[in-house]
Design brief:
This protein is an alpha/beta fold. It is built from two helices and four strands, in the order βαββαβ. It has one domain: 3-Layer(aba) Sandwich (Rossmann fold), CATH 3.40.50. The protein has a four-stranded parallel sheet, covered by helices on one side.
Length: 76
């Protein structure tokens, strides 16, 4: 079965996407915030900006869906 990594998985879009994909794929979820309902998926807490952590997050995955962002960075 295809392994998919979702960064920013604790966010609104990541949470919705996880629910939709969990039955069809093996998911590796990552975020800097705790993930409320991982539904049995692998969870890695860490910052994708940390190279060692990012390498661990994507090890053995087939596809990366990158949703991680700092929404405060763009606030005006």
């Amino acid at each position: 079965m295809r392994r998919i990594h979702i960064s920013g998985a604790a966010g609104r879009i990541g949470t919705c996407l996880t629910r939709r994909l969990a039955a069809r794929y093996v998911l590796v979820l990552a975020d800097v915030s705790p993930i409320a309902d991982a539904g049995g998926c692998t969870v890695i807490l860490g910052d994708i900006a940390d190279m060692a952590c990012a390498q661990r997050m994507v090890q053995g995955v087939d596809t990366v869906i990158h949703l991680a962002a700092n929404p405060n960075q763009f606030a005006r």
